[in-house]
Amino acid sequence: MNQNHLILLQAMPIFGATTAATLEFLCSASSEVEVPKGQYFFHENDEAQSMFVLETGEISILKDWQGSDFVLRYLGAGDCFGEMSLVEPGRRSASALAVAHCTALEITAQDLFELYSRDLEQFTLIYMNIARELSRRLRDSDRRYFEMKVEPRHAEQEWTYHSV
C-alpha cells in the first residue's frame, strides 16, 4: 500500500472520521491514474462510475455550451472530482481536463460497494461526507449565480472561456 495515498485521503473532508482500516482498504482497492497535460480524465456525457482524488497536478472542470468549453472551476492536489457519479449513476455533467500533468486515485462505485459489504457504518459516513461536499459546491454555485444576477459584470469575470 502506498503511504502517500493514505496521507492524501486522511486530509480530505470526504474521508473525514473514517478509520485507518477503511482508508487502507480504499487505497488498496483504488487504482492510480496518470493523465498528461492537455488530456482528459473524462468528457461531459461519458458514462460515470467513479470519482478521482487528485494527488498531483491541476485540472479544470469544463462545461460545453454551443460548441465552446467554459471553465467552471480549477482543482488542485488534494481535491476530488467526479463524486456525483457515486451518488447518482449516469453520465458526466462536465469534462475534467488536466491543465498540468496529473496523478490521481480512482475510486469506483464497485470499490465503495465492497466497503458497504465490509463495514456499513464507514460506507455511510463516506456517503454523508460526499453529500456535505456536494452541498458545499451547490452553495458556491448558488452564490455565483446570485452575484451574476445582481451584478452581471462582476460575475462574468469568474467564468472563463477555455479553447481546447
Tell me about this structure.
The structure is a single chain. By secondary structure, the chain is α+β, with helices and mostly antiparallel strands. The chain has a single domain (3-156), classed as Jelly Rolls (Sandwich). The protein is 41% helix and 32% strand. It has helices spanning 3-10, 20-29, 84-87, 109-118, 120-150, 152-156; strands at residues 31-35, 40-42, 47-48, 50-56, 58-65, 68-76, 80-81, 90-91, 95-98, 102-108, 160-162. It has a 5-stranded antiparallel beta sheet, with no helix packed on it. Strands 1-10-4-7 form a 4-stranded antiparallel beta sheet. The chain starts with a helix and ends with a strand.
Features:
164 residues, alpha+beta, Jelly Rolls, four-stranded antiparallel beta sheet, 32% strand
What is the secondary structure topology, with strand pairs?
Layout: H1 3-10, H2 20-29, E1 31-35, E2 40-42, E3 47-48, E4 50-56, E5 58-65, E6 68-76, E7 80-81, H3 84-87, E8 90-91, E9 95-98, E10 102-108, H4 109-118, H5 120-150, H6 152-156, E11 160-162
Antiparallel strand pairs: 1-10, 2-9, 3-8, 4-7, 4-10, 5-6, 5-9, 6-11
Helix pairs in contact: 1-2, 4-5
| Helix content range | 40-55%
Measured between the Cα atoms of the first and last residue, the distance is 36 Å
Oligomer: single chain
The CATH topology: Jelly Rolls
- Average pLDDT works out at 89
Work out the radius of gyration: 16 Å
Task: Supply the CATH architecture.
Answer: Sandwich
Q: Order of strands across the widest beta sheet?
A: 2-9-5-6-11
Query: Percent of residues in beta strands?
Result: 25-35%
Summarize the helix and strand pattern as letters.
Answer: HHEEEEEEEHEEEHHHE
Q: What is the overall shape?
A: globular
**By helix and strand content, what is the structural category?**
alpha+beta
Number of alpha- plus pi-helical segments: 6
Uncertain stretches: none
| Number of self-contained structural domains | 1
Largest sheet: 5 strands, antiparallel
Q: Which CATH class is shown?
A: Mainly Beta
Count of distinct strands: 11
* CATH-level-4 superfamily name: Jelly Rolls
